[in-house]
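Predict the assembly for these four chains.
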Amino acid sequence: MIITDKHIHILQKAEELFAQNGYEGTTVRDIATAADVNLAMISYYFGSKEKLIEILFKERMEGTKLRIEAVVNNQSILPFQKLEIIVDQYIERVFNSQNFFKVMLAQQMLQKNEVIIRFMTQYKLSYATLIEEVIQEGRRLGHFSKDDIDTLLLLTSMTGTVMHTVVSKDYYREFNKHNKLEEQDLDTVLKQKLSRHVKNIFKVTLGYEQ
Amino acid sequence: MIITDKHIHILQKAEELFAQNGYEGTTVRDIATAADVNLAMISYYFGSKEKLIEILFKERMEGTKLRIEAVVNNQSILPFQKLEIIVDQYIERVFNSQNFFKVMLAQQMLQKNEVIIRFMTQYKLSYATLIEEVIQEGRRLGHFSKDDIDTLLLLTSMTGTVMHTVVSKDYYREFNKHNKLEEQDLDTVLKQKLSRHVKNIFKVTLGYEQ
DNA sequence: TTGATTTTATCAAACATTTGTTTAAATTTG
DNA sequence: CAAATTTAAACAAATGTTTGATAAAATCAA
């Protein structure tokens, strides 16, 4: 299937609506209106609403694995530094694509679409495998003192902490003094705090001493 | 409004379906069928589908705050021990009410219903306030060395880690060797791991030395 | 306890909208 | 001119809610 600019435009609007109202809470008419195309164009371009979200996942998840593979395979970076880069990359990616990650979280909860489940499983497991490699490397070099490390729990702690922060931004604004902050400025603050916090979680979980 | 056994039964089935298929993905007919009552009974008992989920939240969130208040106000427990109890209580509560917490997470993402938003905000903020008190107490006693503690980030890290673990249990099963484990046994393993992990996060974030 | 009366609960059917998708004609593009 | 795109209209199915009739339960005077 060939993805044109029109596809991309519709997908982007659909993504916004899915993040805002959920998949079931978004109608094909909503998408058509938001994308400023005729209702029938959704079927014409994507076949169905279900195919549309599947194509959205295919589009968004392409090339995700490559970036962290480059880090893991780089010999000149020390294991813990690799993990720090992975953490920062993840935070950056979530904050740059908040809508998609919300859609992803919703899909992870509902587990209705087989195609999407496969995408996400593949994504998560390859991610975990790469991190596992780095942890093994760190252990071989004697950088990490803990020897009963649950990689997936550590990964889940990272994704859970970051995702939950994005999802509950409003509480954050209300509880702290950040009422006056602009959306982007709040994001900058949160990214910095998350980076420090998650790296700390890695540090203590792995038993890393600089 | 008086809640009868019939109400409770219907709410329980609705909760299951909302967790499984989302609020929009669950029809009133689905609920009626699952609860084995006539379709019209849902309107008769709750007024509407929206009122039903609001009443579900009201029911489930009652008395949540009380339990941790009892811990916080207990003078014979040391600050960090209080936090440990709070962590274990939270984990226990999520695992005992997985369906409701999934519904809650979905509602937190979508933020559509004003009544529910108020419930959740009140819940989260009172939770954060109580934890803040314990942290202040620990700082006064010189138990915690860190002085720039972001309570809400710490709380979000706990809820995010625990919730994400519940939501992505399937990945966990697949990645680790737990394929053979029964649902309940897996939960026991995860609860233990989470308890240790989250307490560690608290420890390192607060700068607690025993 | 009776039996009449009112209130509450249950039901199948119907209601008006909204849903995703298709059609067939019209328009634009190469 | 032929293929690809766009359109308004229509389609059947599904949606939340209401209706009006019936059954069951509760209330109460005798």
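Residues 114-140 of chain B form the longest helix (27 residues). The two ends of chain B are 50 Å apart (CA to CA).
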